[in-house]
Amino acid sequence: MDKIFFTGWDSIIRLLIVGVLAYAGLVLMLRASGKRTLSKMNAFDLIVTVALGSTLASTLLSKTVPLLDGLLALALLIGLQFVITWLSVRFTAVDKLVKAEPTLLVYEGRMLRAAMKKQRITEGEILGALRQNGIGALEQTAAVVLENDGTLTALKSTSSGAQSALANVPGAPPTKPDDSAKPSPL
After folding, report:
1. pLDDT band (50, 70, 90) for residue 27
2. Which of 167, 145, 169 is nearest to 155 (CA)?
3. How big is the CA angle at 24 (ends 19 and 25), to the nearest 5 degrees?
C-alpha cells in the first residue's frame, strides 16, 4: 500500500531526467521535420500525433523503456510521417490513400442532403459555418465544403476553371477551361 504514492527517489530522478531529455528530443525532431508535421490535423495527422504522445508517455513512465529506445521510436514516427507526406505531395495515389477528399455540402444556395447525411453534418453546423464567414443567408452561399481536416468552409462566390476553389472537390460541377490560361494572340 505504501508504494501507491511514492516508490523511491530513483523513479523521481529517472522521470525528471528522461522527461527533460525526451521532451527536448521531441521538440528538436519536430522542428527539424518542418511545419507540415504540426499542421492542421486530418485523420492521418491525428494518428501520428496520438502515436507520438503515446510513445512519449511510454518513454517517460515505463521503466522498461530506455531513453534511447523512446527517442528512436519518436524519430521513427516523425520520419515515417515525413516520408508519407513527401510521397503524398508527389503521388496522387498516396495522397488519396492517406487523406480524405473534401465533400461538397451546399451548392448554389441548396443543401445537398445526401452528402450531409453521409458525412453526418447537420443543418445547424452548415448555418454556423455561414455565420462564421459573414454569410447572412443560405441563398447567398455559393458552396460549403467539408474539408479533409473536418472544418467547414463557406464560400460566397466561386468561379469555373482550373483556378476555381472547387476544382478538387468531388461532386462540384465540372470545371470549364479557364480563359485566362489561353495564350493571347500576338
Report:
1. confident
2. 145
3. 100
